[in-house]
Amino acid sequence: MELKRDIYEELLKWKKADTGKVLEVRGARQTGKTYIIDKFSRENYKTYIYINMVQTSGEEFLECLDQVADWKPGEPRKDKALQEAFKLFDVRFEDCEDTIVVIDEIQESARVYSLIRQFSREFTSNFVVTGSYLGKTLSRDYFKPVGDLDILTLYSLSYEEFLDAFGKRELYNEIDLYGGSSHDGYDELKKYYDIYCQIGGYPAVVKRYLEDQDISACMGELHKVIQIFIEESQSYFEDILEVNLFGQLLPAIAHTMIKEKKGSDDLITELSKIVYKQESNRVTKKSINQTIAWLFRSHIIDFCGKANECSPVNVSMNSRFYFLDVGVCKYFLDMAGADLPTLRGILSENFVYIELLKRIREFKMAGTAPMFGTYKEGEIDFLINSRENYKNYGVEVKAGKSEGKTAQQLLKDEKVEAVYFLKGDTYGGMADRKITVPIYLVGRVQFDYERGNEKTS
Fold first, then answer.
1. Could you tell me if 392 and 312 are in contact, meaning their C-beta atoms sit under 8 angstroms apart?
2. What is the model's pTM?
3. The three-state (H, E, C) secondary structure of the chain, written as one string
4. Is the sign of the CA dihedral 374, 378, 381, 386 positive or negative?
5. How far, in Å, CA of 334 to CA of 340, rounded?
6. Between vectors from CA 50 to CA 45 and to CA 32, what angle results, nearest 5°?
């Protein structure tokens, strides 16, 4: 069962752009990186060479590198030795534009990772490198080829990709944002949104739902995905304290999402209090910092900033956590004991957070991560500084029909151009500078309202 992934079009654009750089495909474990790269390579190149650094092919490639490196002082240096290593590995190798070399789990070999600059500068062939635990490459043993890399990130299936699996993406693309379409269409999309918020977008989980529509079976599949990640991550740490943290830190992150409302100036201290039930010391802070960094680099969590007094230039960084898959978020919120209203509220915010993070990485919004805003003792769920028209917008994520007091105050004080109310129980509408959109359509909102001139994709 094949799931269509939007990153395929990005891979085609990369090939056409022909930048000469190596492409690094990032993403969490089991999001389908190897599958989509394999599909792309087979369908678009005459010669496709695959090396996996945790399998036999990786060991064999290292032997080829050893052979071409067999040189003694005083002997002539070998011309194009690295190209020769690939020919030794696979006789089909030809250094031309119709050849692609894919090196999977490249983080397992500092020696091979440190060759990326040569792959970029000495070859005509295209190179793709990938791995689920590229955080390991931050150690000093790995040469950082920053200027020689193009980067794409593959996440778990987005809501749009999820709809594609059920043949509903056309409905999503065509339905009116403000209630001008048949209510049946909105109800249909809301039904899939509710399912998506329960199971998330990991391919194995989505496929399981497609097979039997059993939510509990999907939860079992998601549990496997999470356990594989935890167990594999533990193998990269030697300190027993850090190893043990992996089983405790993810539900502790969910606890911070339940507890705090205005962000924290010291998330690490908050986490250590939850995990250790005591004030943190230097050792525990270091361990938590290292584990959080690993979760961030492994694309499991990300951070949200806080715009103080709703000023996009007065931001406290890393004030709140969010998960990068709503199914994983629900899994750990359930583990943390969230009640149903809290669970629904956090999942809605997490869903919107992921959508906004994409906009930032496409340079459509300012910042390095989405931010919420505080204003006159109140709070708005998200504050957006658009790079399309350089105006500020508020975003309120609502489960019910209420309109936040802070949002009203921001409009009154002209701190934002407009406020978007994202709700699950609406068909949409617009009144002056208050724009209501079904939450599941947030991916289509452009956030470029200028006094009655809102555009949509």
1. yes
2. 0.92
3. CCCCCCHHHHHHHHHHHCCCCEEEEEECCCCCHHHHHHHHHHHHCCEEEEEECCCHHHHHHHHHHHHHCCCCCCCCCCCCHHHHHHHHHCCCCCCCCCEEEEEECHHHCHHHHCCHHHHHHHCCCEEEEECCCHHHHHCCCCCCCHHHEEEEEECCCCHHHHHHCCCCHHHHHHCCCCCCCCHHHHHHHHHHHHHHHHHCCCHHHHHHHHHHCCHHHHHHHHHHHHHHHHHHHHCCCCCHHHHHHHHHHHHHHHHHHHHCCCCCCCHHHHHHHHHHCCCCCHHHHHHHHHHHHHHHHCCCEEEEEEEHHHCCCCEEEEEEEEECCHHHHHHHHHHHCCCHHHHHHHHHHHHHHHHHHHHHHCCCECCCCCEEEEECCEEEEEEEEECCCCCEEEEEEECCCCCCHHHHHHHHCCCCCEEEEEECCCCCEEECCEEEEEHHHHHHECCCCCCCCCCEC
4. negative
5. 9
6. 90
Q: Kindly report the CA angle at 338 between 286 and 336, in degrees rounded to 5?
A: 35
The tokens for 449 are 């309202």
Q: Which residue has the tokens 């919004």?
A: 365
Q: What is the pLDDT along the chain (457 residues), one digit of tens a residue?
A: 789 999 999 999 999 999 999 999 999 999 999 999 999 999 999 999 999 999 999 999 999 999 998 766 767 777 788 999 999 999 999 999 999 999 999 999 999 999 999 999 999 999 999 999 988 888 888 888 889 999 999 999 999 999 999 999 999 999 999 999 999 999 999 999 999 999 999 999 999 999 999 999 999 999 999 999 998 988 887 765 567 777 788 999 999 999 865 556 677 777 777 776 655 565 577 888 888 989 999 999 999 999 999 999 999 998 999 999 999 999 999 999 999 999 999 999 999 999 999 999 999 999 999 999 999 989 999 999 999 899 999 999 974 445 578 999 999 999 999 999 999 999 999 988 999 999 999 999 999 887 545 454 4
- What type of residue is 392? N
- Which residue type does 425 have? D
Question: Can you read off the two tokens belonging to residue 64?
Answer: 């080829």
